[in-house]
Fold these 2 entries.
Entry 1:
Amino acid sequence: MCGIFGYAGTKKDAAEIVFSGIRSLEYRGYDSWGVGVVPASKSKFLISPLAVKKQVGKIGQASIADLPQGSIAFGHTRWATHGGATVENAHPHLDCTKRFAVIHNGIIENYEMVRDKILRKKHTFRSQTDTEVVVHLIEELAQTQSLRQATRQAFNLIEGLNAFIVLDSQTKQLIAVRNGSPLVVGFGRGENFLASDASALLPYTKRVHFMEDNEMVIITDSQTEFFETKSGKKLKPLIQTLNWSFAQADLGKFPHFMLKEIYEQPKILSNISQVSTVEIKKIAGLIETAFGTYLVGCGTAAYACLAGSYLFSKVSGFHLNWAIGSEFGYQLDFLTPKSLVLALSQSGETMDILESVKKAKAKGAKIVSLVNVFGSSLYRLSDYSLLMGAGSEKAVASTKDFTAKLAHLTLLAYALKGKIKDGQKVVAQAAKVAAGICQRPDLSRLKKLAKLLKHKDHMYIIGRGLSYPAALETALKIKEISYIHAEGLPAGELKHGPLALVEKGTPCLAFLPGDETYGANLAGSMEMKARGGYLIGISYKPHEIFDYYIPVADCREATIIPNVVVAQLLAYYLAIERGLDPDKPRHLAKSVTVK
Ligand code: M6R
């Protein structure tokens, strides 16, 4: 969702720094953007103490060369919630005097009340956003108190999960507050930064503080001061040094991040099969002693949870519940301090997960997270966090984090059985099979299939057992980036309704690994074929009923991993064939930081 980047320093090209900062946050998904800078010197052309540039659409080839030089600036990429994607609604928003500007991520739930009861009569609103309320509220409150107090009071008055930054052109400071939406402070030499994502800070500094809920920071070129928003009490930041590499954020030789991230999987999986098992064993111990373990995630991570429930049952004979993040909050009445929640998230910032995990925590449940981003909100909220080691994932479509999660869940299931070495072997085997799929001739078969299917309107994907979450994930990937309607189904459900949709030429993908599901899955495939379906078999062996065959060697329970790699590549090439940008699907964002 919205990307935020702020700079206060001694360099004169603050606007350029900020512009490149928000460019690096493009992957979060947005529909408009804006940059605000305090000009270094007064110019007769400047009618305002703040210079602002805002545009609708992607940054693309846009330039901000027309903005003046200055040493303090901030920028924002907006993903519309309140009010359409227009220049007026893009951030920053200015107060009536144009002294203050605000950028914001989140939703102000009581914005109508604040606007109508406190501000309407005295202030002129120029946008349809909830954000604009904040800047006028600060303008109003700052008439009788310091900006620090005014910002704090404004923050305490608004409701919802929010992070915003105020830029004061007079005192040349940035004031940021956070509750829910992520914000990271970066400490440089003679310069300080703010960003919604620590990866955006990497070109400048690795020394960061991840802001907690209800924290406020005041930033100038030489100082950072932290306060508690409720009491105003001074706080000490927890400064950490990131060990991330800047190169991870680069495309390298790949045309898109999604393809790059798909290709990174064999290496990541092979690493996972070799790293120390201490943490895995520790979490397996927690599952063993808990009175009920609940796997919770959203989107792709939810399908990893579902796969986990099959893995634990199949490999270690353990029953684990699973729930979709946004629904879990409605079914946790039975949680006790003996329950364990395994929260799965790539970003660690998905609001639906954070909200339900907070509720579970309030009931005393222990929280363990499988998360890819160090320092993320979920990482910090959890009693124990296991990092996926997948490296920065930039494409909106999640790929390498998903297979890294499947690999870790496989290890956990095997650890519970006391046979972690066997788990490492199957993950290592899956890494090899995945590597083969990324090479010719398998790749050419997938590219050819994408050409055959590119004009189709609907696709159905079936699987049983672990291939059921694989089918769901395949459908999600295809929908998300190629915009073709795709449905993932448990093969057994076909005859209970969906079969009515299959007609001559309907693409039907079937996962047929050589496990206990093979025979029944084949029966489902035949049912589709008999209704005219164009049958694409993804299996360890060909079959006469397949109209198109994608070979995937078996690697026991980990076959789901290479199966999903096939799905990722097919979705990617479908998007390419349809002339779409697979990295930035319409209407979607990488980090879903609103409810
Ligand atoms: O960062 P998270 O893993 O918590 O994100 C969860 C979902 O928003 C995410 O997996 C989403 O479904 C992806 N775009 C799917 O490719």
Note: The chain has a mean pLDDT of 93.
Entry 2:
Amino acid sequence: MRLLYITLSFMFVVLVGSCSQPSPEVQDNEHFRRADSLLQLLTLEEKAGQMTNVGLTAITQGPFWNDFDTLLLDTAKMRDLLINQHVGSIQNKGVYPPCREEWHRIIKTVQQFVMEHSRHQIPVLFGMDAVHGAHYTAGSTLFPHQIGLAASWNPELARVVGEVTAYEMRASSQPWNFAPVLDVSMQPLWGRIFETFGEDTHMHNMMGRAFIEGQQGSSLADTTSVATCIKHFAGYGTPFTGKDRSPALIPEHYLRQYYIEPFRHAIEAGAITAMLNSGTVNGIPGHADHYLITDVLKGELGLKGFVISDWEDVGRLASVHRVASDARDAARIAVNAGLDMSMVPYDASFATDVVDLVNAGKIPMSRIDDAVRRILYVKFKLGLFDNPWHDPAGYTDFGSEEFAEKSYQAALESITLLKNDNGTLPISKDNPKILITGPTSNALTALNGPWSRTWAGDDPSYDDPGKKTVLEAMQDAFGAGQILHTPGTSYEGEVESEQHLLLKADRADMVIVCLGERPATEKPSDIDELDLPRNQLDLVKRLHKSGKPIVLVLLQGRPRIIREIEPLADAIIHAYWPGHEGGRALASLIKGDDNFSGKLPYTYPRYSGALYTYQHKVSDKLDHEFGLDGFNPQWEFGHGLSYTTFAYSDLRLSADTVFTDEGFSLEVSVTNTGSRPGKEVVQVYLRDLVATITPDDRKLVAFDKVHLEAGESKTLAFEVSYHDMQYMGLDNEWTALSSDYEVLVGGLPGELLSGKVFYAGP
Ligand code: GLC
């Protein structure tokens, strides 16, 4: 009897469970059904409003660009934009970062206003650039930027960053994140490479997927999940000159092979909206490219939600790209190309243009209906109609120690040791006297970089109390009395006198010089020269005269060239922009309480005239004598040192010949041969020896990060798929030529183990 009761209850639970939780497809159909019903009720004006996104300061008191330290909503502007013009989406903020209670007040007021005054009570969709944490909310957790996550080679960390970011966004009533950035960047001059996962496609596939799964959770309607906006589709990350928003030249088969793949993976992982490329690819502006937006992104890749423009970019089809005669013509081109929402962002002029264009027969109503249906679908899927705001008091983990610890772990695993001669690090001397200097040595802004409380992230008036700069963290770690400090120089200013610097250095056992670049993104991040500014190089040259060991710490968003000073440094650490806990993480690594495990996510160039990536071709290696020594970066992709050493053995491939659609697996053993525990990144590359399109020198197809105690060995297994063996042919189809492939496995720096597989064709 008892058994029968248990069995029946179990069946009941299973049935109820399956009834109360319909499959994602069924839920999606329901969201679309609701979107369709609502769509039927909307006028053209209301639809055009839903397609419009304005900046928050378009509805606050004062001018759009203001430097107010409080945001007061302006009822007349709200009535005009949200009610009369039906604007359906708002993004970002003014200058200062509101706290989460203030976000709650702002967003609740806006949503209530729409509920009270509009015909259909469609909630407004708020979007944010929470690219390394919910940084536009005061007190939130700030993580390493994406480039640092890539340097950790640990997608689990990206998942955690996604989760915490979503939690802290929802704690601020914000449901939609303009992240992750999936722009593979093969252009180290580009000022936004720090917002990406670096130069490799596979890295973007893995990291992007984990980040999205983290922030979208199991359901977008959960009050701890946010909707993803992947950006900037497609080819934005490799502008020819390196300047932001400038032209890229990428043949379609390369676009597909390197740049579109991360978006495909992201959409498979559930990414629901996408933002477009501000620049042009092969002369076609991203916002006018019907083929890429409609055929590829929505068609082939199957994006279910909507496509938003980047900032002001519809108008720029006329004012910058000159493919449209005026703003209205630009709206015609963009919407017909497949754009669903325009980030105008100052007013609702786009909505007026759309109405006129439809009435004039220049945009079909079916296109508008498709756009609005997608937008409403996202709003339903997010649960906005039920929960248009959230009570911040319910989010007790916001800005918690626990979240700070997660950020600390991410920083620890991302920071990369590039050079360490004669065991300079960790500092082994008892009670060492350390001189700390350089423009990034005592600034929180130098750890967090751009998109930190403000867009540029360079204003110290928004520094979070209690967070430690490198100097402060080093004082905590070694004792304040052990640390000397002098700024040395600013980012681009005068250098302190040699005499003064040497007097300071003479009193120390070693010198830590913190260099780097001033936080900046987008156009303000454009540079004409990849070398670190001359004054910073000079600072190191002057200090070198002291004869004291020198450690360089590079806090910067891209690989600034340091060829001249590299030989003067005994140890070099690349910290990227490691976030709020970066100072603590650096101090702990320098002291040896923790071990380095970061690896470069891009090739670190030696010369500004030699900007290769690791995918380079054999012809890139040709030197002056037609030998093959011409590829000579400062440090290669995947490079990074540890305080311990690792040895690889027993590479075993499951097959020596494979046929079409078959992959193979491999195993390799890795041993910690040093005396300290450490984490190693095991990298698996394929080198295609013959193809119809000149193949890359090698291609990353898998990696794993493994923790090993001193003396410990582990055997790791990897799968290499047939798809990994393929390349994109000129016909834009994945293909492979029957040929040999080298399989290269191991850690860098070091010799990779190699095996061979023959692909025999069908
Ligand atoms: C921009 C950026 C984009 C961002 C948007 C909203 O200009 O290019 O990445 O999401 O504005 O702030």
Note: The chain has three domains: 126-364, 415-591, 644-761.
